[in-house]
From TrEMBL:
The lineage of its organism: Eukaryota, Metazoa, Chordata, Craniata, Vertebrata. Transmembrane segments: none annotated. This is LY86 protein. PANTHER family: LYMPHOCYTE ANTIGEN 86. One of its GO terms (biological process) is innate immune response. The keyword Signal applies. Residues 1-18 form the signal peptide. It comes from Notiomystis cincta. Keywords: Signal.
Length: 115
């Protein structure tokens, strides 16, 4: 019995660590607005929040992002899609950090730092 429990536990841990699904997070969910994001690195997730989410269409709002680096930043890309009623209406893609594109102050930050 104990051997089967240990085997089941090991298989469960292997399944959790082998997952490559990008986590989806909800920033806000209101009657007329839903904002979600996915981290493109399942091993290094980040936090993203917006102040006053219901008022996003009518007021200036603050966006915050944070993470503890598990890897040094050598390359960083952003890709945004605005989807309304299931249809993509806006797509934005850019290289923030990389060879010849290191314009942000966090490019080159080392493992263990806070962003």
């Amino acid at each position: 019995m104990k051997t089967s429990n240990v085997l089941l536990f090991i298989l469960l841990l292997h399944y959790i660590n082998a997952s490559t699904e990008w986590p989806t997070h909800t920033v806000c969910k209101e009657d007329n607005l839903e904002i979600y994001y996915k981290s493109c690195d399942p091993q290094q997730d980040f936090t993203f929040s917006i102040d006053h989410c219901p008022d996003i269409a009518t007021q200036t709002f603050n966006i915050r992002a944070a993470m503890v680096l598990k890897h040094s930043i050598k390359e960083l890309h952003v890709k945004l899609n605005m989807i309304i009623n299931g249809k993509t209406v806006l797509t934005y893609s850019d290289t923030i950090c990389g060879p010849g594109h290191s314009t942000s102050n966090f490019c080159g930050m080392k493992k263990g730092g806070n962003l």
